[in-house]
Design brief:
With 300 residues, chain A is mainly alpha-helical. Chain A has helices spanning 7-42, 49-65, 70-93, 101-123, 148-170, 172-182, 184-189, 194-220, 227-241, 246-267, 272-286, and strands at 139-141, 144-146. Chain A has a single domain (14-286), classed as ABC transporter involved in vitamin B12 uptake, BtuC (Orthogonal Bundle), CATH 1.10.3470. Chain A has a two-stranded antiparallel sheet with strand order 1-2. The chains are: A mainly alpha (300), B mainly alpha (335), C alpha/beta (252), D alpha/beta (386).
């Protein structure tokens, strides 16, 4: 019982790491969901996913700087990202529909460099601040503090997940996307316009990404190149969870965030990213399709 | 009717040799040699990566990790432990091969994007280690690398040498050396491809099931090609380090991994000469675009995107296809 | 004499659905043995179990008396078992003859050193493999495509190419999964001749096929599957007369 | 092939010789100043103001009649913070563009990658990067304008000591600047003897939350003050996390964030923190007797008028680099590389924005730790402490 005295501090430290991990994990989860959406509809890994995030944050910041009210700026920024998603699918993915997987990956990489380049031309290279949505006063829980914006991230994340679930299980469009992801030809036979569905998937994914980009901007700041690393982490989260699984994306994102924070807290901050990447290798070693990935029987 | 087995087998190699040795007639500037040397060394690594990606169909998004390991091993052994460059290069390649084998066995069971993810993770871990182990690697600011030496004789881009009684500059000497290394790399790769092993590798790409039912142990061959491509990367990385004289962990970084695989895809997966063209294009492009300053990034992204949309099979295969079609059309017209 | 292939109480379930259940039969060396049954009866699953693509959930498969249920396809090839596929598995990234030469894989000794430096031992082996493969392409009737790319060949020729590849491995037993599917009448007759020629060389043939005429003409014995279970087994005459089979085919 | 090579070599020599002759014949040719900077990429906050500074002052000098009666020509490339690119562009500047002097190298990695080439080519080079290794040991052709990170560490630790703070919680970025700064801090602490680093944490350049590391530091035994060595947006996040965790230990940052941009990002959280910086951030608080005052004020007002953006310490490195180059060329009276180098090495009392430079054969930086002023954030702006 000698350690009992240290317990409250140890607990508050643990809680602190947990809060940190869950907040950043929620961001990863939202990005991973964007990957999942597009992957499901088209089997493309969209390396430009992080750029939607960047567009969301940067457009909101620059619009508010121009005097547009915050809420309107957010709506416009999300709409801009949605258009970007549509344009990406129409102009870059659709014309190359016969290309193989790696080629499509390179196309999305090209697209992400292009979008980043545009953003840099329009908005410059500086980092920008976005104020917290509801004050800077942190909330204290058992000796650990929680940024009020973290609650926004978690709340918006939860709402988006709920909306997505509703969208895919209750709406025709959502079901059409799901049907297309399962069997493109069959979907076409029952009258689903698959190109339309793909476009929708990219748009929804872009909307999701940009909203994520806006809610996290007060925590991470925003700049033209913020999308690279966040996009990558989102891909990692999606792979841990199992590509194509919505539940997997959420679990994968949260797991990645928490592992990073715990590794930084308890192991070594130098190697926290290495710990996260080792975790993926470990997961894939035992579950080659991620935690919740679909088990596919190869047909021959 | 029968057999055109080896008739035109090395057509590409001969073409490449002509280009490599004719280039000094057309470029007139040490900077261009330096660029060409660098391209040749990176192209060598890309030829190795193509064995894995283009022929065996296994994606690696972490190949720069092996390039970086080779570069740093040679740099560390030659500068901290007084090794000579050649043994450092060989031992490094051997070590990287073993690492690739150990890592490759489990991750090559993965398919598609999961394999991409795993290779990406391996590359990242390597880059993180190189970045953090400051004592050995100099950390993120990098470390200087001694000149390449062979039995006490130094090859430095700044030296003056004589070859067959002629004076040549260090830049030209390095260029010729790198050119020959690239030719050897291509020759070995071609030999590998045109062999039972190469067929087995390509069949893993074409149809893994078909390969397995005729007795190809696909796991073994995937590991083998992973190791070979890692060794290619390691050797080229070591030479690159000695040529540059200074390296930073960026040589093992994610961006460089992406650049390497982009060279393969842009040039034409599965075409040895094609991927070299990919390397040339992607190394020269930034030099050309440098004059566009702030538009560089937009243009680079746009060019990459458009090329891949309109030439999804890559530059060389698309051009070759186009020429073949035209030829058959005009032949048809003659008949 | 033990049978070449012996299947004992073999089962495979996919998440609770039994694709193959309690199947037993034996194939003697030199036979042409066909598996028939309506769509979804489990014929291809049975083949995949025998050739090691699937691991059975129950029962056993023996080749020459050795249990092979847990072996990899490549290990089965080493033991003389080769197959073709319902959905053709041709390496479209290779030329036609290379696809056949791939079948020579096990007979070619490949060593990294001889390969990388292309030493004479390698070239000799390659020349022999090339000659043998060309011969096999002539044998299966696609000799005209010896210098073609696989991707440039028509469907019927690819089907024969796949057989040539399997033969190149010098198998004791070859399993053909719906070789006549998609072929026209002339091609089917040619295929029938080809299967006979293969059998004449002493190679055991197992066949999954829908073309009843073909099956009845060339089979020594037949296995009828329905809903993953054995409905009947016997000579073509016995099967033709079997009331269960007639019911399944006509009534089903 | 052999004959070809020989012919080629001869041809090459002939062209070079002709070029040299032509050059000396036309004395009115511009003086070519080469530069490679990290204008994009993670270090763009360095390269961007540096390029802007070089562009505007080359223009200004040309309007005023140039140097030695010749115009200046600026040839610059963007290395995007990538060392191999930096080396390539340095090579291009030296061998293709044939520049007379190089002023550039935003980061230590980019600088060090180009150094072997520059030493071999024997061309004067003024680096704009901070790490001690650049000029220690002295390299014949390499100079630099920013104070080294070692001086920053010395200045910070001395200030801490004077406030009785001896147990430091250190947090640093894993990038070149942070990692080198960390090393220097540890070394200086060891030499000073009475300072102890009780926590040593790091964060990645694109990390978005450093709460975990700060929580660890807060929990370290007896920690009295926190020092963050890093640049980019990371230190701003550290500052905000520090405020969120309501840590009330005195907080220090490095000169890596000495800009108004940092204050914008960090906001109220930065209140009370201290850092070493050039007087550029507080020109008004300099006494009139300070020789740097007019130069600092002029640079600040000219830059801000021209670019409509806040001036940054990093741009000042480029200003000092360019002015040192100009002074050296004027003193040498020629663009002959060896003469310019010698002139550079002998520059004494050159008053710049960053500090007063006194170069010598064994000091190619020419600054002392005193050139750093300790600033504190008070009411959202920089205040000179000492």
């Amino acid at each position: 019982m000698a350690a009992a005295r240290a317990d409250p501090i140890m607990f508050s430290e643990f809680l602190q790491y947990l809060f940190t991990g869950i907040t950043i994990g929620a961001i990863y989860a939202l990005i991973a969901l964007g990957f999942t959406l597009i992957y499901n509809a088209s089997h493309v890994i969209n390396f430009a996913q992080g750029e939607f995030l960047m567009i969301g944050g940067m457009a909101t910041v620059s619009l508010t700087a121009m005097g547009v009210p915050m809420l309107l700026a957010i709506v416009l920024a999300v709409a801009l990202a949605g258009l970007m998603g549509i344009a990406l699918q129409r102009l870059a993915i659709a014309p190359a529909k016969d290309a193989n997987v790696v080629t499509l990956i390179i196309i999305t990489i090209g697209a992400s460099i292009f979008i980043r380049g545009l953003a840099q031309l329009v908005w410059g290279k500086k980092y920008h601040v976005m104020p917290n949505f509801s004050g800077d006063e942190p909330i204290e829980v058992f000796g650990a503090v929680l940024n009020s914006q973290s609650l926004w991230v978690l709340g918006v994340g939860a709402v988006l997940v709920a909306v997505l679930v509703y969208f895919f299980t209750r709406t025709m469009t959502g079901k059409a996307i799901l049907a297309t992801s399962m069997n493109k030809d069959a979907a076409r036979l029952v009258g689903i316009r698959t190109q339309m569905v793909l476009m929708l998937a990219f748009m929804v994914s872009a909307l999701l990404g940009s909203i994520a980009g806006i809610v996290v901007a007060p925590i991470t700041f925003t700049s033209y190149d913020i999308g690279i690393i966040l996009g990558l982490k989102g891909f990692v989260a999606a792979a841990i969870g199992g590509l194509g699984s919505g539940v997997g994306a959420v679990v994968g994102g949260l797991a990645l965030g928490v592992v990073e924070a715990m590794a930084a807290g308890y192991l070594s901050s130098d190697y926290k990213d290495a710990v996260a990447f080792s975790m993926i290798l470990l997961v894939l070693f035992f579950m080659p399709r991620g935690l919740f990935g679909a088990k596919v029987v190869e047909r021959v | 009717m029968i057999v055109k087995l080896s008739e035109f087998r090395l057509k590409g190699l001969v073409f490449l040799a002509i280009v490599v040795f004719a280039l000094p007639l057309f470029i007139s500037n040490p900077f261009h040699y330096s660029l060409a040397t660098q391209i040749a060394l990176i192209a060598g690594a890309v030829v190795g990566l193509n064995l894995l990606v283009g022929f065996a169909g296994q994606i690696s998004l972490g190949h720069a990790g092996f390039f970086g390991l080779g570069a740093y091993f040679s740099a560390i052994m030659t500068s901290h432990y007084g090794w000579s460059a050649i043994p450092a290069l060989i031992v490094g390649a051997f070590g990287v091969g073993i690492i690739a084998w150990v890592v490759g066995r489990p991750i090559l069971r993965l398919k598609g994007h999961y394999l991409s993810m795993a290779t990406l993770a391996v590359g990242f871990i390597i880059a993180i280690i190189l970045n953090n182990e400051r004592e050995m690697t100099g950390g993120p600011d990098g470390m200087p690398v001694p000149a390449f030496d062979v039995f006490g004789w130094e090859l430095s881009p700044f030296g003056q040498y004589s070859l067959f009684g002629m004076d040549i500059s260090g830049d030209l000497a390095w260029y010729l050396f790198a050119g020959v290394v690239l030719l050897v790399a291509v020759w070995l790769a071609q030999n590998l491809i045109d062999s039972p092993i190469g067929r087995a590798l390509r069949s893993v790409h074409g149809s893994e099931v078909a390969a397995s039912v005729v007795g190809v142990n696909t796991t073994k061959y995937k590991s083998l090609v992973f190791v070979i491509s890692a060794v290619y990367a390691s050797v080229m990385g070591a030479l690159y380090a000695h040529f540059q004289g200074f390296i930073t962990p960026a040589v093992a970084g994610f961006e460089f991994s992406i650049l390497l695989i982009t060279m393969v895809v842009l040039g034409g997966m599965g075409s040895t000469i094609g991927v070299i063209i990919g390397a040339v294009v992607l190394e020269l492009l930034p030099q050309v675009l440098a004059d566009f300053q702030e538009f560089e990034m937009v243009l680079f992204g746009l060019i990459l995107m458009l090329t891949m949309i309109f030439m999804p099979k890559g530059l060389l295969p698309t051009v070759a296809n186009f020429l073949a079609k035209r030829r058959s059309k005009s032949a048809g017209g003659d008949a | 004499m033990t049978a070449l292939v012996e299947v004992n109480d073999l089962s495979k379930a996919f998440g609770g659905v039994h694709a193959v259940e309690g199947v037993s039969f034996a194939v003697d060396a030199g036979q042409v043995y066909s598996v028939i049954g309506p769509n979804g009866a489990g014929k291809t699953t049975l083949f995949n179990l025998i050739t090691g693509l699937y691991t059975p959930t129950g029962g056993d498969v023996k080749l020459n008396g050795e249990s092979i249920a847990k072996l990899e396809p490549s290990q089965l090839a080493e033991r003389g078992m080769c197959r073709t596929f319902q959905q053709m598995q041709i390496c479209m990234n290779m030329s036609a003859i290379e696809n056949v030469m791939l079948g020579r894989h096990l007979t070619l000794k490949s060593n990294l050193l001889t390969t990388l430096f292309r030493l004479p031992a390698l070239t000799r082996g390659e020349k022999a493999a090339h000659a043998k493969s060309a011969e096999l392409m002539e044998f299966v009737g696609c000799g005209e495509y010896i210098n073609a790319e696989a991707s440039a060949m028509p469907y019927g020729a690819l089907k024969r190419l796949e057989i040539a590849r399997a033969l190149a491995a010098e198998p004791k037993i070859i399993l053909l999964d719906e070789p006549a599917a998609g072929l026209n009448a002339v091609e089917t007759t040619a295929l029938e001749d080809l299967i006979r020629k293969i059998a004449e060389q002493g190679i055991t043939v197992m066949l999954v096929e829908h073309d009843m005429k073909l099956v009845m003409n060339i089979s020594d014995r037949l296995l009828v599957l329905n809903y993953g279970r054995v409905l009947a087994e016997g000579s073509p005459e016995q099967i033709r007369a079997n009331p269960d089979v007639i019911a399944a085919y006509l009534g089903g | 092939m052999n004959g070809t090579l020989a012919r080629y070599t001869k041809k090459f020599l002939a062209i070079t010789a002709a070029g040299l002759l032509a050059m000396s014949a036309q004395a009115a040719d511009p003086i070519r100043i080469g530069s490679f900077l990290s204008v994009t990429g993670p270090a763009s906050f360095l390269g961007d103001p540096e390029l802007k500074t070089l562009e505007m002052y080359v223009e200004k000098i040309n309007e005023e009649g140039g140097v030695l009666g010749r115009q200046l020509e600026l040839i610059h490339y963007d290395d995007a913070g990538n060392a191999s690119k930096a080396r390539n562009f340095a090579s291009r500047l030296i061998r293709s563009d044939r520049v007379d002097i190089i002023v550039g190298g935003s980061t230590t990695g980019a600088t060090m990658a180009a150094v072997p080439l520059i030493e071999q080519a024997q061309i004067p080079f003024i680096s704009l990067a901070g790490a001690t290794v650049i000029t220690t040991p002295v390299k014949k052709w390499v100079f630099k304008t920013p104070q080294s990170d070692r001086m920053a560490a010395e200045r910070i630790l001395t200030d801490m000591e004077s406030r009785g703070l001896t147990k430091i919680g250190l947090i640093s970025g894993t990038g070149g600047f942070g990692s080198s700064g960390r090393e220097q801090t540890l070394a200086v602490a060891k030499e000073m003897g009475n300072i102890e680093v009780v926590a040593d944490e790091t964060y990645g350049g694109s990390d978005t939350d450093m709460t975990a590391q700060l929580t660890n530091i807060r929990g370290a035994d007896g920690v009295q003050t926190i020092l963050n060595f890093g640049f980019g947006q990371g230190p701003a996040i550290v500052t905000r996390n520090y405020a969120q965790l309501s840590i009330d230990l005195p907080f220090y940052q490095s000169h890596g964030v000495a800009s108004d941009g940092f204050l914008e990002l960090a906001g109220d959280s930065a209140e009370g923190l201290r850092l070493p910086a050039s007087p550029l951030l507080v020109p008004a608080s300099l006494p009139d007797s300070d020789p740097q005052k007019p130069i600092v004020e002029a640079y600040k007002s000219e830059y801000e008028a021209r670019w409509n953006a806040k001036v940054s310490t990093f741009g000042a490195y480029a200003y000092d680099g360019l002015m040192l180059a100009v002074e050296a060329i004027e003193k040498a009276g020629t663009t002959d590389k060896a003469a310019v180098r010698d002139a550079l090495e002998n520059i004494q009392g050159h008053v710049g924005v960053t500090g007063t430079y006194n170069m010598s054969a064994d000091d190619h930086n020419g600054l002392t730790a005193d050139s750093f002023r300790i600033l504190e954030v008070q009411n959202g702006s920089w205040k000179l402490v000492n």
